[in-house]
Amino acid sequence: MVLTLFKSMKEAIILAGGLGTRLRSVVADLPKCMAPVNGKPFLAYVIQYLQQQGIERFIFSLGYMSEPIIDFLNKEFPSLIFTTSLEDEPLGTGGAIKQALTFAEGENILVTNGDTLFKIDVNEVAAIHNETNADCTLSLKPMNNFDRYGVVVIDESRRIISFKEKQFYASGLINGGVYMLNKKSFLSEDLPQKCSFEKDYLEQYFPTRKMYGIEQQQYFIDIGIPEDYSKAQIELRSQ
């Protein structure tokens, strides 16, 4: 049953259009996802892990400095099946996903960020997403003693019941930035062309849509700030 459901989750959107302003002090003149980690762009780690998880087709949502990303993909991943969704102007995460979904072939698509590596079990999350017929399923990372992220609260059935603002938490589940998204459902929403996926979709629609959160214990790193970018250099050294 699980294997049958997993066959439909072969496609991923990678959001790679961020400006990376918080990394400018350590990585200049490069889009954030191209920040070098042990001699290769961070994006390479994201692609390689998703390939290991069975993803076969990629849609790269690009904006700022798209040319070096496309050049890198053509040179280092010559056999990769991918297309690009180019933003003429910044659309926000929601607008970027909305545009990228028009290139998607499948009914349900994995969406992740090019500056985050969350080693979720794609098979497990996809199975639950399909079994619940969810509009959107979030992969949630348990974390202790943090203030950089907000908290996602789920009930016994894993349904999302609230999003809590960023502040200090002794423990909680954070949004790991990896989503399973039903294409038809999301594209039917009355969202503006420019919008935030997190604020304008998740936090506004979770009470009336089928949104679930799946706890995933696996490795997580977000290189959005210099401290975690430095940590990635050590933690990903053997990969």
Strand coverage percent: 25-35%
The helix-and-strand class reads: alpha/beta
The 3D shape can be described as: globular
Please write the string of helix (H) and strand (E) elements. Answer: HEEEHEHEHEEHEEEEHHEEH
SS field, number of helical segments: 8
Please state the oligomeric state of the protein chains shown.
Answer: single chain
Largest sheet: 7 strands, mixed
C-alpha termini separation: 32 Å
**Cα-atom Rg, whole angstroms?**
17 Å
The number of strands is 13
Give the mean pLDDT.
Answer: 92
Q: Unreliable stretches, pLDDT < 50, 5 or more residues?
A: 1-7
Strand order of the largest sheet: 5-4-1-6-11-8-12
Q: What fraction, in percent, of the residue positions are helical?
A: 25-40%
Summarize the helices and strands and which ones pair or pack.
Blueprint lengths: L1 H5 L4 E5 L20 E2 L2 E2 H11 L4 E6 L3 H11 L4 E6 L5 H10 L6 E6 L2 E3 L3 H10 L4 E11 L4 E4 L5 E5 L4 E14 H5 L9 H9 L5 E5 L4 E3 L3 H10 L4
Parallel strand pairs: 1-4, 1-6, 4-5, 8-12
Antiparallel strand pairs: 2-3, 6-11, 7-13, 8-11, 9-10
Helix pairs in contact: 4-7
Give a short synopsis of this structure.
With 239 residues, the protein is α/β, with parallel strands linked by helices. Helix content is 30%, strand content 30%.
Protein model, in words:
The protein is of the alpha/beta class and 239 residues long. It has helices spanning 2-6, 42-52, 66-76, 92-101, 122-131, 183-187, 197-205, 226-235; strands at residues 11-15, 36-37, 40-41, 57-62, 81-86, 108-113, 116-118, 136-146, 151-154, 160-164, 169-182, 211-215, 220-222. The strands form 4 sheets. A 7-stranded mixed sheet has the order 5-4-1-6-11-8-12, sandwiched between helices. The two termini are 32 Å apart.
